[in-house]
Amino acid sequence: KILKRLIETVTLARKKKYWLKRLDKAGVPCAAIQNVAEAMSDPQIIARNMVVELAAPDGGKPFLAAGNPIKISDMDDTLKDARAPTLDGDRQAVLDWLDEGE
């Protein structure tokens, strides 16, 4: 408990950028823990198309959501129908598909 308290006191005294720089310089593998807003605006996440804009199902304001995390070279992962799903929105299509299997 004493060591934990000491580490917390020291690390909380500086911003995370400070610690990332110091640990990186010392050769310690590390990464920041990000909140949702930080993760969604991270340049690497954006460059990999891992944040997508979806249309609200009720026609409201579009919103950002997580994109496909699996990337395969030469495969277009752009969303063709960028809309948020709705409850039972594809129900009939799924039931029709299941019926075809019988």
Order of helices and strands: HHHHEEH
Largest sheet descriptor: 2 strands, antiparallel
The total of beta strands comes to: 2
How many helical stretches? 5
Strand fraction? 5-15%
- Spans of at least 5 consecutive residues with low confidence: none
Structural class assignment: mainly alpha
The helix content, as a percent range, equals 40-55%
Distance between the termini: 63 Å
Please outline the helices and strands.
Blueprint: H1 2-12, H2 16-25, H3 36-40, H4 43-47, E1 51-54, E2 63-66, H5 91-100
Antiparallel strand pairs: 1-2
Features:
mainly alpha, 40% helix, 2 strands, two-stranded antiparallel sheet, 102 residues, elongated, 5 helices
Description:
With 102 residues, the chain is mainly alpha-helical. It has a domain of 49 residues. The chain has 5 helices and 2 strands.
